[in-house]
Amino acid sequence: MSREVNFDGLVGPTHNYAGLSVGNLASGRNRSAESNPRAAALEGLAKMKRLADAGVPQAVLPPQRRPDLATLRRLGFAGSPQQVLDQAWKTAPDLFAACCSASAMWAANAATVAPSIDTLDQRVHFTPANLLSHFHRSIEADHTANRLRAIVGDSPSFIVHDPLPPVAAFADEGAANHLRLGAPDQPGLQVFVYGRDHHLPSPTRTFPARQTLQACQAIARLNALDSDRVLFVQQLPDAIDAGAFHNDVVAVSNHQHLLVHEQAFVDQPAVLDAFRRRLPQQPLKIHEVKARDIPLETAVNTYLFNSQILSLPDGTTLLVMPVECEENPAVRQYVQQQLVDSGFVDRAMVVDVRQSMRNGGGPACLRLRIILKDAEQLALRGVRC
Ligand code: SUG
Fold first, then answer.
1. Is residue 381 pLDDT above 90, yes or no?
2. Which atom of ligand 1 is nearest to the CA of 131?
3. Which of 18, 98, 104, 162 is least crowded, fewest Cβ atoms below 10 Å from its Cβ?
4. pTM for the full predicted model
5. What angle in degrees, to the nearest 10, is found between the helix axes of 81-91 and 93-100?
6. Could you tell me the distance, in angstroms and rounded to a whole number, from the CA of residue 92 to the centre of ligand 1?
């Protein structure tokens, strides 16, 4: 049997709001706001506990070391740990903030994962994201590769690749720009969503697009995917300019379910049609939210599309949405009438992850989903669900 395990990131003690992410409206708005790392960690743990109690296999990725003294030393700060931090704080507060960021909590950006049912060599493949569009996130990549290698150990069932070369042509943000459609125990459709083609002028006007087509193509090759079941889709530039800096701010999938904003992809009707045609044996349940019902601005402010959609052991489907969705009357009503009463999902659960949300990370950002066969799950070191 195959099941999806959710690996959540754990918030570190230096969680803070430094306004580091261009194009992420929450990060900009909350710059210099007071953070509460303890509350942040407890919120993340409470979400994991509730999902584990609901029967969802749940795992935790260990936090990364922060402040990142090794990176500060690479940038020329020397002496004892205290001297390194003091110098950086006084002379380069931006570098200090970057090396204190607890951004590794957003595990959806850790890697792009291909389950063994989708790969040509029947191994589970991981490509850790280089996250090079922002310095404070790029320092996660090598640690992420090491953590994943420690978790998979020397089992031949897994392969952890190196992150893509750290140049703009291969800018990669991990699973936040990737969808897998299909049942966990059947070959699925792997959808890679890119913001820009590195060989063309930037398609956006206000904010930079983070993910490149070239990165997506490289990951599809590395992860040994069958090209018949891979699609490369461009994110709508207007969505990025409205603050959807990752595709998971406007679309979320689970098995055959897809919840997607009308303004998620370029040429969206053809894209949705291609999803259906490429997976003919598995009828898809696609719910497209119209902009007149929920404008992009509301989608970005409430993070409805950053909900988790989860299949529970009793066969029902759960939508795990951030409390900001419930606080918005239009979104609350939409969820109840159009998603629950209509039968798209069986029920909705509200989670409070405000500390993460204030930096632009909702429930789905906090987890890396990994579909594992029973034997693969047993082979993972330290993971017992
Ligand atoms: O990369 N925020 C993260 C949020 C990532 C959310 N992840 C997904 N959508 N999957 C980012 O923009 C803000 C840090 C600061 O400003 O202190 C930050 O890095």
1. no
2. 1
3. 162
4. 0.97
5. 130
6. 21
Active site residues: 173, 246, 365
266 Cβ contact list (under 8 Å, min separation 6): 233, 234, 235, 236, 237
- Please choose from 16, 249, 359 the residue to mutate so as to test ligand 1's pocket, defined by most ligand atoms within 8 A of CB: 359
Q: How far is the CA of 311 from the centre of ligand 1 (A)?
A: 26
Q: How far apart are CA 297 and CA 8, in angstroms?
A: 27
Distance CA 361, CA 364 (A): 8
Q: Residue 190, SS3? A: strand
pLDDT tens digits for range 13-46 = 999 999 999 999 999 999 999 999 999 999 999 9
Cα dist from 373 to 6, 8, 48, 122, whole Å:
14, 19, 21, 11
Burial class, 49, CB count within 10 angstroms (exposed 0-12 / middle 13-18 / buried 19+): exposed
DSSP state of 33: P
Cβ 379 under 6 angstroms from ligand 1: no
Residue 310 bridge partners (DSSP): 318
How far apart, in whole angstroms, are the C-alpha atoms of residue 88 and residue 97? 9
173 Cα–ligand 1 center, Å: 11
Predicted confidence band of residue 12 (pLDDT cuts 50, 70, 90): confident
Is the minimum distance from the CB of 101 to ligand 1 under 6 angstroms? yes
To test the ligand 1 pocket, which listed residue (6, 7, 21) has its Cβ within 8 A of the most ligand atoms?
21
Q: Residue 106 C-alpha to ligand 1 middle, in angstroms? A: 7
Q: What is the CA radius of gyration of the chain?
A: 20
Q: What is the pLDDT of residues 188-206, one digit of tens each?
A: 999 999 999 999 999 999 9
Number of residues written out for the chain: 385
